[in-house]
From TrEMBL:
Species this protein is from: Haloferula rosea
Stated name of the protein: Membrane protein YfhO
Keyword terms, alphabetized: Membrane, Transmembrane, Transmembrane helix
Organism lineage string: Bacteria, Pseudomonadati, Verrucomicrobiota, Verrucomicrobiia, Verrucomicrobiales
Ranges that cross the membrane: 12-31, 127-148, 155-175, 210-235, 256-276, 342-360, 367-385, 391-408, 420-444, 491-508, 520-540, 761-782
């Protein structure tokens, strides 16, 4: 047996401190391109080389990773908006920059309630961006170290577990989105705090719901569901262990279920400030039939990619132990052949991933580890994948990390020797066959490779970036080159695989020196494996060469022609929209230019649906759309739009039928005729505050109604004097804002404010949950005992 709980010559607390220090050093090294090299972890090359208008004239260039395009079109905009909102108003609420007005704070993709978002209050943009990312990676590593140390794992494999979990493939592939990292960096700490409570640490009772809430706040609603599923797995595992010990003790089982239910309810209550408004926004989008996560992409199947999807997905599982064969972000996506894509790789190094799979049938595997692995592998094969996608692999990666660390700490020499022999022979035979095949292709496969290259180019030409010919040629060339075993894409991870197997074999040696050397070799191999995987995916950009949303001539033209009360619509290229459409939805918002279009996980129930009649000048004109922009040479621009500016990247048109966004009416008939699309009799209104969540309107004398071409939403209130009471903004027939006034001889200033009721309700529930959590913790501590369901004892470092 390998050493489990103690390393000679050190106190357990000191050893744990050393583990955390090593993790800190490695994470700092991972982020050194930022703090030492001045680069930023964002795909700015994608915008500046391949997207309009930032790439400018000529053919699109080459970018490393197009998978993370959402970072350019959505996620950076959210953070920029948050930073501006904190600076100007102190909070994130309403945004008039997309969709014609939306409750942006309730967008589940934006993660506005995650702790990392608050860093934008105090730091410049890129400092806040990277401190948040680095903090989340450290939380993941530290949490796993504490969890493994608490379960009796020795120092080396606790550090290994912490680092491979912090760099697992789901964290890496979604790191720019933070969808996986944000919630699941807290998952080890949730389990650790549960373990602490089971071990008799009564204070940890209240820590469990806090970590659950932090995990909820860090993710989308999809990831909230997966975190909740992880907690359910913890309950099920503990209940099963208790059932095996005392099968007739139903009282303990009910008590256990009650404890987990209280933890879950408190965690949900603490996160209610996000959960309530985001859930409501999701359901609104679902009622409109616009949320693909609930409706899926397959009209005639319970699976997004058809009934055969689970079989194809299952066939891809063996390749997860060596994902280099599945392609890379600057090559082709081989996982698409398995009805998946490279976003859904489940990898923590060759041996840790392999041991994760094998742990299912290993008798010594813990109940929790096995349960997490099984749920994480089986649920993606069920219709649940339609709603949660293969993001469920996060459960597998969590369980596999724990299983690997436990295996290396507690497995017998014979077990490790047997695994090494079988894995080495299998890998060797496959590598030999690959080498022979590579040699055959190099010598005799010229025609086949040329034909393959032509076919792949033809397929890729139909993609949204298909017009980027140099980029497509690079990807296809990389794909063809990576078919050979001597490609760096293959021989580097193969070398690390061999080093890891060599080290694993030596850990079973009778020589103490070899055992220690083998452990270091294996540790180094898996650390380098996950680092290699990350470097091939993550883009570090030079902001000097690739600035963040620079002011181009197109931006200057928009600012000149579209005033603060104007709004634009965008005609999107039907096939090559990513490379030819200027200013994809949301990308105008960093410049403060408002759009009727947008892109996100939820949409408002407002004046117009996304991309509904994007060129209808009359309809859009009544919604305050003053200009249209599109790619040069678009033949489908309606005649009502008059060209006012053009460049090789963009054409800008003015709407000859545009009406002001803010108008007033003296009579009901004027208002009714206007809303019916017949009348054009109105008075001009001027908005003077320039803020998102408050407005000040200068209204002409004699006005009875004010209409704003902006989506009406609950929470908007107004009053016409300092002494009058606040009244809710009305919803017009076209879903715009409408306010009834008492006509006055003199003009008046109408003040508006946004106080979303669901946000206020969520804050009240969060505040109440904090009080209940504190009182509950105090009661548990003072009660003097821990309600533990009889089960196997939790090992601890003593």
């Amino acid at each position: 047996m390998m050493e489990t709980t103690k390393t000679k010559g050190g106190h357990p607390a000191l050893q744990t401190g050393v583990c955390l220090a090593i993790c800190l050093a490695v994470v700092l090294a991972w982020f050194s391109p930022w703090w030492a090299g001045g680069k930023v972890m964002a795909p700015l090359d994608l915008a500046n080389e391949m997207m309009q208008p930032w790439r400018g004239d000529g053919e699109p260039g080459v970018a490393k990773n197009h998978f993370v395009a959402d970072n350019i079109t959505v996620l950076l905009e959210y953070r920029i908006f948050a930073a501006e909102s904190y600076k100007n108003e102190g909070w994130v609420g309403w945004s008039d920059l997309t969709y014609g007005g939306t409750a942006l704070y309730a967008d589940t993709m934006a993660l506005f309630d995650d702790w990392t978002m608050q860093l934008h209050r105090w730091f410049d943009f890129w400092t806040a961006w990277h401190l948040g990312l680095m903090g989340q990676v450290l939380i993941a590593a530290f949490g796993m170290v504490l969890l493994l140390r608490g379960r009796g794992t020795n120092t080396l494999w606790s550090v290994a577990g912490g680092l491979i979990y912090a760099a697992n493939s789901q964290f890496v592939t979604w790191i720019n989105h933070r969808f996986a990292l944000g919630p699941f960096c807290w998952a080890p700490l949730i389990i650790w705090s549960i373990d602490q409570y089971r071990a008799g640490k009564r204070w940890s009772w209240g820590v469990v719901p806090v970590f659950i809430a932090l995990a909820f706040l860090g993710g989308t609603l999809q990831h909230v569901a997966i975190v909740a599923l992880a907690v359910v797995v913890c309950w099920g595992s503990e209940a099963w262990e208790g059932w095996k010990v005392s099968r007739r003790n139903w009282v303990n089982q009910v008590s256990l279920l009650g404890r987990y239910a209280v933890w879950g309810l408190l965690g949900s209550g603490l996160a209610a400030l996000m959960l309530i408004p985001c859930t409501d926004a999701l359901m609104t989008s679902n009622e409109l039939g616009l949320h693909t996560g609930l409706h899926g992409h397959a009209d005639d199947s319970i699976y997004p990619q058809g009934l055969l999807q689970p079989l194809f997905n299952l066939a891809a599982y063996p390749f997860q132990v060596f994902p280099s064969v599945l392609g890379r972000c600057d090559s082709m996506d081989v996982l698409k052949l398995f009805k998946s894509n490279l976003f859904f790789v489940a990898y923590i190094g060759f041996l840790p991933t392999l041991i994760g799979f094998l742990a299912i049938g290993r008798r010594q595997t813990g109940t929790l580890e096995r349960s997490l692995i099984l749920v994480g592998l089986l649920l993606p094969l069920t219709p649940a994948v339609r709603f949660l996608y293969q993001r469920l692999f996060l459960l597998f990666l969590l369980g596999a990390t724990m299983a690997f660390a436990g295996y290396m700490s507690r497995s017998s020499d014979e077990a490790r020797r047997r695994l090494c022999v079988v894995a080495a022979w299998t890998s060797g035979v496959l590598a030999a066959g690959w080498l022979i095949g590579s040699a055959g292709m190099a010598w005799f496969g010229g025609d086949f490779l040329a034909s393959l290259q032509d076919r792949v180019m033809a397929i890729g030409g139909d993609s949204s970036f298909g017009g980027a010919h140099a980029w497509m040629e690079m990807r296809v060339s990389n794909f063809i080159g990576d078919l050979f075993i001597w490609s760096p894409q293959q021989w580097v991870p193969l070398t690390l695989l061999a080093l890891g197997l060599w080290g694993l074999g030596w850990t079973a040696s009778k020589s103490l020196g070899r055992r220690r050397t083998g452990s270091v070799m294996l540790f180094s191999a898996i650390l380098l494996e996950v680092t290699c995987f990350a470097t091939r995916w993550i883009t570090w950009s030079d902001p000097g060469e690739y600035p963040l949303f620079p002011v181009t001539p197109e931006v200057a033209a928009l600012r000149e022609h579209v005033d603060r009360d104007g709004r634009v619509t965008v005609l999107i290229h039907p096939t090559e929209h990513m490379s030819r459409t200027p200013f994809l939805p949301n990308t105008l918002s960093p410049y403060g230019i408002e759009a009727i279009t947008g892109y996100g996980s939820v949409v408002p129930d407002g004046m117009i649906l996304p991309n509904e009649t994007p060129g209808d000048a009359k309809k859009l004109g009544r919604f305050g759309v003053s200009h249209l922009l599109t790619w040069p040479g678009n033949p489908d621009v309606p005649l009502e739009w008059r060209e006012v500016w053009s460049s090789p990247s963009m054409e800008l048109y003015a709407n000859t039928l545009a009406l002001p966004r803010y108008v007033a009416f003296r009579t009901d008939s004027q208002k009714d005729g206007f809303l019916a699309g017949e009348g054009r009799s109105f008075l001009p209104v001027r908005e003077t505050s320039g803020k998102q969540n408050t407005r000040e309107l200068e209204v002409p004398a004699g006005s009875k109604w004010v209409r704003i071409a902006e989506n009406q939403a609950e929470g908007w209130e107004y009053r016409s004097s300092e002494t009058s009471s606040w009244r809710p903004v009305l919803r017009a027939e076209d879903a715009s804002m409408l306010m009834e006034l008492e006509p006055k001889v003199a003009g008046m200033t109408v003040r508006m404010r946004y106080r979303p009721p669901l946000r206020l309700l969520g804050l009240k529930i969060t505040g109440g949950s904090i009080m209940l959590m504190l009182l509950g913790t105090l009661w548990v501590v003072l009660r003097g005992r821990v309600g533990v369901c009889p089960s196997r004892p939790i090992p601890s470092v003593t």
